[in-house]
């Protein structure tokens, strides 16, 4: 059987199965362990699944970033639905859409293209900026990042894991050409993205009108995490806070989807 045929049969099987009552979303411990970029990604997926009204259970695991099928470090969160395991926002989104659930069914083709472009831009700029603040800014690195990332490991494994993670993140930032930037240049990129998002949102409740899309879930995950995670360097929060419609957007989504009685 060819790889193409095998993948087609797998997709057909996934699409034919209904969403189960037991789906599990694995992420690090929120109080002690999780870092800014990871928290943003995990919250984005939780928001996305909640907007779709799909049942899932959040499972906190110290080793969640090592739960990929290949056993290697993976991007978070990790979604397990029956025999299927997917990690990070983009792949989880594709899996959910394959099962017939979508927030963009009513969008025009040009709006869908615009939304996909914004998804890529948001994921790239916000994630790299969050990683930069966490792993390059010396004060945040020393006072927050190392303590949280190493909190679940005994000595001396905590030092080894911090060293490995820092190397991996700096390599990622180097590929994205963020490592050579100053903090002011990173902040400027975030500011320009916020300008674009603020313009796109305008005075609407969501980016494309009266109903949420994947972009709303992803942007909320990043913005709300930046606003609520306490760091000695809050330059990202200060930058985003200039855009009143974006801060109100976060308050509205939190109120609607995470403060249900």
UniProtKB/TrEMBL annotation:
Q: What's the protein called, per UniProt?
A: Metaxin-2
Which SUPFAM superfamilies does the record match to this protein?
GST C-terminal domain-like
Which residues constitute the signal peptide according to the record?
none
Q: Where in the cell is it found?
A: Mitochondrion outer membrane
Q: Which GO terms describe its biological process?
A: mitochondrion organization; protein transport
All residue ranges annotated as the Mitochondrial outer membrane transport complex Sam37/metaxin N-terminal domain in the record: 42-166
Q: Principal place where this protein is found? A: mitochondrion
- All copies of domain Metaxin glutathione S-transferase, residue ranges: 191-253
Q: Does the keyword Protein transport apply?
A: yes
Q: Which GO terms describe its cellular component?
A: SAM complex
**Protein family (similarity comment):** Belongs to the metaxin family.
Keywords annotated in UniProt: Membrane, Mitochondrion, Mitochondrion outer membrane, Protein transport, Transport
Q: Which organism is it from?
A: Culex pipiens
